[in-house]
Amino acid sequence: MKKLLCILSLALTTSFAFAQDETSETTPLEITGSGDIYYKYDFAKVPNIPTSFATDQNSVSLGMLDIALKKKIKNISFVGEISFGPRGQYQSLPNGDGSTSNADNSFHIQNLYASYAVTDKLSLTAGYMGTFIGYEVISPVGNFHYSTSYLFTNGPFQNAGVKANYAITEKFGAMLGVFNDSWNTYKADSQKGLNAVGGQLSYVTDKASAYLNFMDGSVSGTIVDLTATFQLTDKFKLGLNAADFSNEGDVGYTGGALYPSYAISDAFALGVRAEYFKSKEGSLDTDVTAFTLSGNYKINGLTIIPEFRLDSNSDEVMFVDSDLAPAKSASQVLIALVYGF
């Protein structure tokens, strides 16, 4: 997949042959990362769209500074990733007690795990990992759009546990793992422990990739998720994400999103995210259709992202207008500067 966290994970799960290659037993320490800032204006004049990040109204604001480290020695690989700033701290990462309080947040680790290549096809990974579920990620260098989808916001961000990846063929792969009882925490309930099981089937070629994911646990609930990317022509790419989540009390959601994008030139591309998201009976009454139009203008490592977003709900329960009265829709514009290194 296209995203930074998945690039780190994919390097561990699909390139096992290098662990057996004597000419590449040890790699230099690899350092990558990103930094981003943004300006957003909501036409209701207050923060209005309840998805992750880009929440500040009428302000030049911080996203995150993200630094990822990777090292391989023979058949052992290590990945550590830390982040600073609202997007990489209290808006996405929990403290030790699982809270995401702005004032108290001091936990900066996005990823911290090690992998052991048992054979050229099988690897074992343990630690605190960016989730394998979903199309979008926390770091904006991995996303075409700067604001995020409802599917991303309501799905897992991280999963701590142990997993095994197996390369069935050059194109097909499988993963099975056990994870902490709850999403987004590195510390499980001591009575429940590794209470969730998750898995993935993958298909990857030069022109297409698809990942069928699931996770099930008595605390975390049950989520089934499909992500795919198709490079239909040299200039036109299509991505998709569909998911269904359920938990006790009929709590949950179902939804899907399409991500078409077109490269107008080597430096500039336009893309749309068209999403439908509906909550289940025990959840907040959410029935949203959201359209996001974004541009990506790249100058060396810098990406400039102008964006317009329009979200509509079937009832007046989510949004407000400029008089703070209930409204069925919300719209915003933003411009973000994202630098990757």
Topology overview:
Layout: H1 4-13, E1 30-42, E2 59-73, E3 76-84, E4 109-117, E5 122-130, H2 150-154, E6 158-167, E7 172-179, E8 196-204, E9 208-217, E10 221-231, E11 236-247, E12 251-263, E13 268-279, E14 287-299, E15 302-313, E16 319-320, E17 326-327, E18 329-340
Antiparallel strand pairs: 1-2, 1-18, 2-3, 3-4, 4-5, 5-6, 6-7, 7-8, 8-9, 9-10, 10-11, 11-12, 12-13, 13-14, 14-15, 15-18, 16-17
Detailed description of the structure:
The structure is a single chain. The chain has a 16-stranded antiparallel barrel. Strand 13 and strand 14 form a beta hairpin. The protein has one domain: Porin, CATH 2.40.160. It is mainly beta and 341 residues long. Helix content is 4%, strand content 53%. It has two helices and 18 strands. The protein is globular, with a radius of gyration of 20 Å. It starts with a helix and ends with a strand.
Name the poorly predicted regions. 1-23
**Number of strand segments:** 18
Fraction in helix: under 10%
Number of domains: 1
Percent strand equals over 45%
CATH architecture: Beta Barrel
Q: Give the overall shape, derived from the CA principal axes.
A: globular
| Helix/strand order | HEEEEEHEEEEEEEEEEEEE
**Distance between the first and last residues' Cα:** 18 Å
Identify the CATH homologous superfamily: Porin
Provide the structure class.
Answer: mainly beta
The description of the largest β-sheet is: 16 strands, antiparallel, barrel
Mean pLDDT, as a whole number?
A: 89
Q: Given this structure, which CATH class is correct?
A: Mainly Beta
For the largest sheet, list the strands in their spatial order: 1-2-3-4-5-6-7-8-9-10-11-12-13-14-15-18
